[in-house]
Amino acid sequence: MIIVDAHQHYWQPARGDYGWLGQAPAMLQRAFLPRDLCAQRAAAGVQFSVLIQAAPTEEETRYLFDLAHQDPGIVGVVGWVDMEANDVGAHIDALIHDGKGLLRGLRPMAQDLADPDWLARPSLDRAFDCIQDAGLSFDALVDMRHLPALLRRLQRHPQLNVVLDHAGKPAIGDGRFDQWTCWIDELSQHPQLHCKLSGLLTLLGEPVHEDAIEPYVADLFSHFGRERLMWGSDWPVLTTRADYAHWLHVAMILAERYASGSQAEVFAANAVRFYALDIDLTSHEKTLNRRPGESRDPATLLANQNKEKNS
């Protein structure tokens, strides 16, 4: 089975533009780079990833382009742009040019902004027009405070290709299910909105057991179905709660429980379609199936990924 991780990060704090890391758990305040993940990802059977920005600078987006060339599994980058710039269209065009096909979407770090209504500001209309005209997607990094503004943005840009990161960050540890599911009910009625099955374990807090995410996952499948959900690791944030393979295993069990037979869509096809990734899943699946005796050694798998990407 081909698996696409729709949401993973790399970062290098020495670059100096990851301000949020100062308040993050100490274990995250170090560099996380391809050498730290590639073997884990290959051992888990994940062939491809979408690399998501983690700093509010265009320089970091270009840094991610560079890292993508070091990691044969990266098939797309979701970057950052100054959406309030007067010439935002020129900024987006420059990133598209520099990415040479890697830029698949943009993500402002709305959850870190003081104004919970920022996404709905009319002054951002031009930026969203440019994102849409460029054929890019929009990742909504929000929590429940921002969901009303996101809804208004969806109403203003009904054709915008949007994905809700980490299911909108429900307050799982606080048990506020009803408030969250009411917003999910409204948001999911917009057919262009997709949702990432990601980031849920790290929302639990201690000592809440990971079983607490199950009603949230069930609700996501109920609202978005197998067609609009995509799995993401949210690595390395994930490492504060679980390892890469464990979250993949948990997510696969839950996907089978609430949408039997949906794994091909949730763990690959939906991300490929949403981000318009240059992956022929049928061809890759046939190649994988032709290698029943292939070594599962991570180094060997990584070398094979590299050959396929460059072929």
From TrEMBL:
Where does the record place the region Disordered?
A: 286-311
InterPro entries attached to this UniProt entry: Amidohydro-rel, Metal_Hydrolase, Metallo-dep_Lactonases
Q: Where does the Amidohydrolase-related domain lie?
A: 4-276
Ranges of biased composition (kind: Basic and acidic residues): 286-297
Q: List each coiled-coil range.
A: none
Note the Pfam families from the entry.
Amidohydro_2
Lineage, top-rank taxon, reads Bacteria
Signal peptide residues are: none
Query: What does the sequence similarity comment in the record state about its family?
Result: Belongs to the metallo-dependent hydrolases superfamily.
Stated name of the protein: Amidohydrolase
